[in-house]
């Protein structure tokens, strides 16, 4: 059963790559044929390199991350600064080529859901075009409920209903962290999970079998 999961977030630096890496490792350990892509990035390729290592270097860095730019601004802006253009059709063609080879493809966006990835398209446009299952990653802290609700509201209704939310715990949680999950569920956001803090390396075991399978809709079982 083929499946594409799109990992987006409420902002940049919220834990998208962490979650993607953990999912890749877990699914590979279960024998699932999985690939992880970060089609566009700017300001360095550290995220793509983490995905490269997590999937055992099965894909080259350029296959994982075909469009990368030096300036640490939105990829669409960084591309223009280098007199280059990223078009939705080209990104779709690349992801679909990888989809043919793997049972599960994880696609990590850049920045938040509406951050521009290229010429006249953002993560939402790519997610919808791929017919992918959305996962929204957010830091578990004060103010995140509003950010999550705004992100979900920006999704088409069908995707909003199936979207899964992962709250990433900080090293030092604030008082709101303990109540955010319950509050979101009371606000009719049922698919919410927490990713606990496990030190700087945050070992793959932190994800846990239950969370991994639910995020991946039990694919490969």
Q: Mind explaining what this structure looks like?
A:
By secondary structure, the protein is an alpha/beta fold. The chain has one domain (3-215): Rossmann fold (3-Layer(aba) Sandwich). It is 39% helix and 19% strand. The protein contains 10 helices and 10 strands. The protein has helices at 16-29, 46-54, 61-64, 75-81, 88-99, 123-130, 144-153, 157-162, 177-186, 209-215; strands at 3-9, 34-37, 40-42, 67-69, 104-108, 116-118, 121-122, 133-139, 164-168, 192-195. The strands form 3 sheets. The chain has a 6-stranded parallel sheet with strand order 2-5-1-8-9-10, sandwiched between helices. A two-stranded parallel sheet has the order 3-4. α1 (16-29) runs parallel beside α2 (46-54) and α5 (88-99) crosses α6 (123-130). It is globular. The termini are close together. The model has no long low-confidence stretch (mean pLDDT 89).
């Amino acid at each position: 059963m083929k499946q594409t999961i799109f990992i987006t977030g409420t902002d940049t630096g919220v834990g998208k790559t962490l979650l993607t890496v953990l999912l890749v490792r877990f699914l590979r350990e279960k024998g699932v044929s999985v690939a992880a892509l970060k089609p566009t990035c700017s300001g360095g390729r550290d995220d793509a390199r983490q995905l490269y290592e997590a999937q055992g270097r099965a894909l080259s860095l350029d296959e994982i991350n075909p469009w990368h730019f030096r300036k640490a601004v939105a990829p669409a802006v960084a591309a223009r600064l280098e007199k280059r253009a990223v078009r939705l059709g080209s990104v779709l063609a690349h992801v679909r080529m990888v989809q043919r080879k793997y049972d599960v493809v994880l696609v990590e966006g850049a920045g938040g859901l509406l951050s521009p990835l290229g010429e006249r398209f953002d993560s939402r446009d790519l997610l919808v075009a791929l017919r992918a299952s959305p996962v929204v990653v957010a830091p578990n802290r004060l103010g995140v409920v509003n950010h999550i609700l705004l992100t979900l509201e920006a999704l088409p209704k069908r995707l909003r209903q199936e979207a899964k939310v992962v709250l990433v715990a900080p090293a030092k949680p604030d008082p709101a962290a303990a109540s955010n999950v319950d509050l979101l569920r009371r606000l009719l956001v049922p698919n919410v999970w927490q990713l606990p803090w496990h030190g700087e390396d945050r070992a793959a075991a932190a994800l846990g079998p239950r969370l991994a399978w639910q995020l991946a809709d039990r694919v490969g079982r």
